[in-house]
Amino acid sequence: MENNKSDLKSFFIKLISITLALIIVINVVFNLIFSEKIEKLFFLTDESNREVVKDKIRHEISRGLEKENILNKEDKILLKKLYIKIKNEFKEIE
User: Fold this and answer.
1) In the structure, how many helices (H) and strands (E) does the chain have?
2) What is the pTM of this model?
């Protein structure tokens, strides 16, 4: 009986220790990985931040239009294949 109580006490101590360790690990992983992405989502809620992002997109589009070729050859091939596939799927609807 005395040995049973000792084993049960040891089991609960180990169980609580493992549970606390898991909580700490999950908390650290969440804070290191996901908090950065969540902050980026909240970054776009502010009007001035949205304007900054819009301006950056416009600038990049302008830079792309100044180039002779916007896409490289591999991207052109992939986009053409995608276009043909989508076109064929729309033909199936009609």
Assistant:
1) 4, 0
2) 0.38
